[in-house]
């Protein structure tokens, strides 16, 4: 089970504004904060997310192929999270919409993709019943 995911940042203040806005939409806040690290989520909840300046003192960089997926309640929240990301210094990696074809149970993957101000890739998604 995943406790939390950490992304690197070179500007913790900018990352904090971005993730504060994303976390607020998802109904959580900061659960841990230090000089070089902030984590968002609930102590008794699901997986959280954290932004940190790298411990080794080197510059943070984006991992190719690494992505954090945020589970949304519905399509409207996927859109809101995407919009919040872009309004808080994020950039588009794929507008919200269906991806692929429904599975044998009529479930469809629906997602919007974006990057945080440091270039870390995220998406807001849900598995949605077609029809």
TrEMBL record:
Q: Which InterPro entries match?
A: Glyas_Bleomycin-R_OHBP_Dase, Glyas_Fos-R_dOase_dom, VOC_core
**Per its UniProt record, what Gene3D superfamilies does this chain match?**
2,3-Dihydroxybiphenyl 1,2-Dioxygenase, domain 1
Q: Which PROSITE patterns match?
A: VOC (PS51819)
Cite the Pfam families for this sequence: Glyoxalase (PF00903)
Q: How is this protein named in the record?
A: VOC family protein
Superkingdom, natural source: Bacteria
Q: Which organism is it from?
A: Qipengyuania polymorpha
Which lineage ranks, top first, belong to the organism behind this chain? Answer: Bacteria, Pseudomonadati, Pseudomonadota, Alphaproteobacteria, Sphingomonadales
Q: Give residue ranges for domain VOC.
A: 1-127
Q: Which PANTHER family match?
A: GLYOXALASE FAMILY PROTEIN (AFU_ORTHOLOGUE AFUA_5G14830) (PTHR35006)
